[in-house]
């Protein structure tokens, strides 16, 4: 009989202990962020989808079209194309498509890039009405982002590179001179 | 056999799931009920099968980083740890000590987060709404720290063959120290709020008793085995990584009921805090990534690596044929075995107790289905 009442008492007491805690927490400062009105600061290390790095000096991308990212991607969601402008040694990136529907954000592409031409975007509000919205054209995005930064984007620019500053005359004429002496 | 409706008997066949709120995802349990008592319970799995093992066999090892987080959303880092350890064993790659310590620190933090997730979800199953808000507050703290260092909240893809993706910075280390202090106080809060609570005690004590023999018969591991008195923890039984250097205990309970498993998990959080504290103190300097060839050639040969995930023993078995794509990858997830004993334990229990038992097993369905 005593045990019965003991149990009731200890049971009620345990509830009271919990209630006291709840009451204390009820007046404690709020820990939640009211999302659409307040947002949290995103860590700079946030790993979103990829974007092309903008070189602020030249307003160009850094990509050398080596296809390493395309090969490193386990899901095969990257496709890119480049062209060699006349008279240039390096290829110029003309198309860069990211199929974000397949991407699993592993970051292999960014890590494998030999020239650090890729960076993580910090977009996290990625929702859309159709799957086609997730086929990102990164060259297009590059242009937009560069304009936002006040740059004139020169991505995919196939005009031949500006002629190099003329070299000193002595070295330029050296082979001709040597040829003429032989002959 | 899945129970079928039988008009000659006065029993009811009921599908619990695959969308029942207390089944944690897409688990379907077919029940034969007599009134409110469960006569048979058959888990039907496979709704979330995505062929992760096969994906491991068609991709290079570095392509599998992203998959590990999709198997166990609660404790993705343990899965990544097991994968890279198995690959490193097969390819013969040495890992710098700092990287190994970082792996342990982040994995243990992730284990705490996983147990906190379980704590909230388990009590939510029992009808207690408040504790999940408390535990998710702490869990958010961990996830923010881990997001800062890995770049993602749940699907970390942090472990790399031969190291980790990013070095720990001062912000993470300071934040972790703050968390260690805070979490010790919070464990006291949990004790006051839940452990002593008479309603919780009445619903968890003596419910779903799993004895040692059942545990051994079904190969259950993790807190389920430790709650039944088996001190089986891979970190001690088959030590890997830097765990032999660290001091920690393996909490066990002998009762084998849902309450025992609850106590074991809360005690494990405390031990995880100890591990993280020691590992932070001993964190050596140096590189976090070993020099790894561009193509990590596997084998020829095989490698087997067991790690202690948040839910129990996780095994990776890799067979390599000398190329950079594994010939065979076998993953033994802990929840699969832990779920398999449900049918035996649930005979004759009340339907509401079945929810308690399933909650106390801490099931993660994507990990079972893979």
Structure description:
The complex is a heterodimer of chains A (183) and B (370). Chain A has 183 residues and is of the alpha+beta class. Chain A contains five helices and seven strands. Chain A is elongated, with a radius of gyration of 30 Å. The C terminus of chain A is likely disordered. Chain A has a domain of 99 residues: Alpha-Beta Plaits. Chain B has 370 residues and is of the alpha+beta class. Chain B has a single domain, classed as Cytochrome-c3 Hydrogenase, chain B (Orthogonal Bundle), CATH 1.10.645.10. Helix content of chain B is 49%, strand content 13%. In chain B, the strands form three sheets. A three-stranded antiparallel sheet of chain B has the order 1-2-3. A three-stranded antiparallel sheet of chain B has the order 6-7-8. Chain B is globular, with a radius of gyration of 21 Å. The model of chain B has no long low-confidence stretch (mean pLDDT 86). Chains A and B meet through α1 of A and α2, α5, α6 and α7 of B.
Question: Which short descriptors sum up this protein?
Answer:
heterodimer, A: 183 residues, alpha+beta, Alpha-Beta Plaits, three-stranded antiparallel beta sheet, two-stranded antiparallel ribbon, 5 helices, elongated, disordered C terminus, B: 370 residues, Cytochrome-c3 Hydrogenase, chain B, 8 strands, 49% helix
Q: Report Rg of chain A.
A: 30 Å
The strands making up the biggest β-sheet of chain A line up spatially as 4-5-7
* Fraction in beta strands of chain A: 5-15%
Looking at the structure, the CATH topology of the domain at 50-148 in chain A is Alpha-Beta Plaits
Fraction of residues of chain A in helices?
Answer: 25-40%
Total of helices of chain A? 5
CATH class of chain B: Mainly Alpha
Shape of chain A: elongated
Question: Which structural class do you get from the secondary structure elements of chain A?
Answer: alpha+beta
């Amino acid at each position: 009989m005593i045990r019965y009442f003991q149990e009731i008492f200890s049971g009620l007491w345990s509830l009271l202990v919990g209630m006291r805690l709840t009451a204390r927490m009820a007046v404690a400062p709020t820990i939640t962020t009211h999302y659409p009105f307040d947002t949290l600061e995103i860590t700079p290390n946030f790993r979103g989808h990829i974007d092309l790095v903008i070189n602020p000096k030249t307003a160009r991308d850094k990509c050398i079209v080596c296809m390493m990212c395309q090969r490193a991607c386990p899901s095969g969601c990257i496709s890119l194309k480049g062209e060699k402008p006349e008279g240039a040694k390096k290829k110029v990136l003309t198309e860069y498509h990211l199929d974000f529907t397949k991407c699993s954000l592993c970051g292999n592409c960014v890590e494998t890039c030999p020239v650090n031409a890729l960076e993580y975007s910090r977009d996290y509000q990625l929702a859309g009405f159709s799957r086609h919205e997730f086929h990102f054209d990164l060259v297009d995005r590059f242009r937009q982002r560069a304009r936002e930064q006040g740059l004139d984007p020169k991505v995919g620019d196939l005009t031949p590179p500006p002629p190099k500053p003329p070299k000193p005359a002595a070295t330029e004429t050296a082979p001709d001179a040597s040829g003429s002496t032989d002959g | 056999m899945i129970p079928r409706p039988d008009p000659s008997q006065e029993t009811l066949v009921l599908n619990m799931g695959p969308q029942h709120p207390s089944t944690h995802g897409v688990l379907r349990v077919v029940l034969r009920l007599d009134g409110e008592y469960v006569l048979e319970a058959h888990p039907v799995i496979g709704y979330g099968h995505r062929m992760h093992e096969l994906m491991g066999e068609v991709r290079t090892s570095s392509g599998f980083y992203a998959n590990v987080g999709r198997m166990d959303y609660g404790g993705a880092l343990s899965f990544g740890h097991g994968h890279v350890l198995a690959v490193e064993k097969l390819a013969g790659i040495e890992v710098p000590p700092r990287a190994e310590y970082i792996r342990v620190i982040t994995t243990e933090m992730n284990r705490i987060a996983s147990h906190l997730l379980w704590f909230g979800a388990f009590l939510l199953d029992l009808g207690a709404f408040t504790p999940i808000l408390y535990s998710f507050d702490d869990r958010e703290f961990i996830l923010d720290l881990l997001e800062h260092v890995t770049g993602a909240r749940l699907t970390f893809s942090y472990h790399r063959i031969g190291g980790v993706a990013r070095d720990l910075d001062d912000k993470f280390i300071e934040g972790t120290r703050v968390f260690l202090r805070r979490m010790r106080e919070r464990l006291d809060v949990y004790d006051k709020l839940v452990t002593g609570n008479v309603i919780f005690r009445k619903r968890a004590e003596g419910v779903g008793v799993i004895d040692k023999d059942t545990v051994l018969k079904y190969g259950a591991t993790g807190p389920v085995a430790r709650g039944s008195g088996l001190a089986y923890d891979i970190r001690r039984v088959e030590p890997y990584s830097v765990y032999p250097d660290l001091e920690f205990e393996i909490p066990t309970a002998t009762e084998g009921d849902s309450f025992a498993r609850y106590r074991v998990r809360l005690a494990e959080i405390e031990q995880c805090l100890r591990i993280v504290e020691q590992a932070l103190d001993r964190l050596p300097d140096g590189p976090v990534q070993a020099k790894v060839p561009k193509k990590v050639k596997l084998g020829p040969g095989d490698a087997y690596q067991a790690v202690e995930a948040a839910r129990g023993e996780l095994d990776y078995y890799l067979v390599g044929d000398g190329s950079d794509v594994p010939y065979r990858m076998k993953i033994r997830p802990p929840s699969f075995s832990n779920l398999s004993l449900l049918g035996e334990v649930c005979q004759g229990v009340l339907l509401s107790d079945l929810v308690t038992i399933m909650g106390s097993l801490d099931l993660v369905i994507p990990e079972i289905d893979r």
